[in-house]
Design brief:
Length: 78
């Protein structure tokens, strides 16, 4: 792979993650940085990295909700 050129799957994953974190922030009334920190602290980012392919095929509402549920199970409270 050439430097600076991503494969399609990596590019799609980055696009989805950069889309869904601001959606999460909007849904739970926080700025994007706080949303990322919350997701990182309570396992949402790990969940996103592992399951992004399935999450990106669903309605963003349900993807955001799934991320919230994972974080909530891991002690996150908004």
């Amino acid at each position: 792979m050439a430097i600076g050129k991503l494969d399609k799957e990596t590019s799609d994953k980055i696009s989805f993650i950069s889309f869904i974190i601001p959606e999460f922030a909007l849904a739970y009334k926080m700025n994007v940085q706080k949303a990322y920190q919350y997701l990182k602290k309570y396992g949402g980012i790990d969940y996103l990295n592992k399951h992004w392919w399935a999450l990106h095929t669903d309605n963003p509402f349900w993807a955001v909700r799934s991320m919230y549920e994972i974080c909530h199970k891991n002690g996150g409270a908004i």
